[in-house]
Amino acid sequence: MAELQSLWAALLAYVAAGTVAIIAVAMGRRPERSVLALITAGLVLHTASLALRWVRVGYGPFTTLFEILSSNIWSLLTVFVLACWRVPAVRPAAAVVMPVLFMMMGWLLVTNPGEGHLPATYDTIWLYVHVATGKIFLGAVLVAVGLAGLVLLRAVGVAARRFAALPEDAGLDELAFRFMVLAFIFETLMLIAGAVWAQDAWGRYWAWDPLETWSFITWLTLAFFIHLRVTLALRPRLGAVMIMAVFVLAFLTFFGVPFVSTAPHKGAV
Amino acid sequence: MGMEVSLVEPRTARAAARRWLAALASLKLTLVFLALLGAGVVATYLGGAGSVWLLVLPLALFAVNLGCAVITNGVFRRQTALLTFHLALLAIVLLIAAGRLTFLKGQLELSTGETFRGDLTQFESGPWHPSRLAEISFTNHGFAIDYSPGVKRNQTRNTVSWNDESGRRRVAVIGDQQPLALKGYRFYTSFNKGFAPLFTWHPARGPARRGTVHLPAYPIHEYRQSREWTLPDTDVAVWVMLKFDEVLLDPARRSEFRVPREHTLVVRAGAERRELKPGERYMLPQGVLVYEGVTTWMGYNVFFDWTMPWLLAAGLLAVASLAWHFWNKFAARPWER
Ligand code: HEM
For the whole model, what pTM was predicted? Predict the structure, then answer.
């Protein structure tokens, strides 16, 4: 099937991009354009695979674990490439971002690519608003994770020579903070869209189901982080650790909770 | 001189008040309250229903903290967007509180042809809920639901009618994303629906009564289509079961929710057991029970919360002002050395 073949090809391009980015750290080179070109090529193939599947099954990649992992790898890399394009200082973060995605790709390879069923409550524009804002949120956090990762790698002395050429910690930290703020804005939008949708679909806008609870906790953690920085003049390394913590929370909320709990959020029955 | 004293005293009092305000407005307290709220959310979540105070207390402290900060902290006077954002947050907290005091959330069931007259099977509501449910009525005219292979439910289309403010009859189809909104109450169809045998009960004395029995939800309780109920104005317990052989919702194909074409109704009163076809009757010492046939019932959720549009507005205002604040703040690019 062309659908799976183009997915394989896309994953190969991503793996090549990640490998180049990681080796470059060790060698002290800056092949950033090649890395971006490879990711972009992967994205083109991946887009084709997602589109073919969408046409075949008749709905978007929203329901099965396979679809959600695949579309998130796609959206995370899309946000990353856009960030690299608009803000060149983000580019070295590829060495941190790609290994995170390798983990998701590995997981994707062992999930069942079979079809799901689009619940009746998914027939609404709010699905698209909710999913799109959620994907931008997670993508922005991932870019911040990449930058925070650079700060932490430098702190433990990895590839010191190469990293010395990057902006100082304070600069990376400020840049990472801006992506966290972007993430915060989009997470707020995601929660609002989700509440509007839940009101229509289940007759209540908020009911503390596991997914709602955990995404609210992630939101609170982000608010805490933003305030911590303003109030206590957080040092970059501590800030980097906070960013990692937010990412872990957000990641578990996205990919852990919906597949562990059987709460109404799966839209079943 | 008395005048001097009275001039000094209010000044110290005002200074003390100002010190208090400043202390309550501390941004370090904000961090503590954010952490408290997070802990409250986790505790409520892990502890099931838990105590609402775990959420209410940190939110109240939060509101005080924010209120004092808005009054005393110069940052807010200089940065309108930041002020707008935090005021929107404050408004959200107050609206949620108002919503919890006045909301209503409940369930009801209506057979096809039945009219809602304000009775809920269960509900919870805030202490100040201004109940107007008794003023509302609408009629359920039946529903259609199609199922994808694997008995996966698709759209619900439920026809309802009611009289609007001017007394004109109105008809609409409601469903999964489309509630019926009457006097601030929103009625939603739900996955909870099933079969409803229809009876007429002719008691030995007194007028005849017509009514339905709602069997357990279908297809969730596919293999438990029975229920016990009591004949009106008697203490006779009757057990009924809907018996049919057809496959209504075929896992292998698309299908539509419908009542079985061929069926019998098993009726048991005491030790006696009878199988009735539509139109058949069952004689009891207390009267005659006529089985009229089977129809359907729909379970509705009803929700009342007048704060919803205001919450949405406050939420959108919060996002817009937050974006505005950071747009201003991020004009500088310190990493470009
Ligand atoms: C969940 C609740 C809250 C959220 C999400 C939130 C969010 C924010 C954000 C995003 C900023 C901008 C930070 C920046 O400019 O870098 C901020 C600043 C500020 N917040 Fe909050 N806030 C919350 C609650 C509060 C409360 C309760 C107070 C009351 C003390 C407060 C007081 C302030 C102040 C004074 C600033 C200005 C800091 C500065 O720019 O120097 N916030 N807050």
Answer: 0.88
